[in-house]
Specification:
It contains 3 helices and 8 strands.
Length: 191
Amino acid sequence: MTLSRRRILRITSGVALAGLAGCASTPTLYYRLSALPGPVLNTAPQTIRIRKVSIPAYLDQTKIAKPGAAYELASFPNALWADQLGNMLQSTLVENLTQRLPQTTVTGSGAIGAPAGLLVEINVLRFDPDSSGSIVLIVQFALKNPNGSLRLTKTIQSSGTPATPDPAGTAAAMSTLWAGFANTVAGYAAD
């Protein structure tokens, strides 16, 4: 009698474990911003340094924001940024400006500490979807001379609707808006 109970227990345990193996959770997917091509400006050789991009604390998270109700910050399940958003904004801007200003050496706050002829400081005020699903970018930036004197300050606002209402569509729309911001910075840096 004891042997048959053990056998039943083993069979029951095996079925339970097999059932649990079929209940795998949805995998987490990681997304990043991408540099996009833009207009190439022919300028005299110069060096530009992009300082660390400041973002609001509510955006300083790994989750990707999605549209929510008014005053609500919602996020996509199982979709995370591949890096901190501020870091991705800086590195993507360096890539975008390098493409747009081929005669210019553009660096961020990485290992290269070359002296800069122009410093770019950036405060992102908003970069997330509104309740209708449009991604809203509001950003302030300053261009400074190496001695710290202010050359220019601007506030830029733009928006765009993702082609698809998912994390990939959001990342693509944000990349497009950030590339448009790079066009603006490149234009002022070329003056």
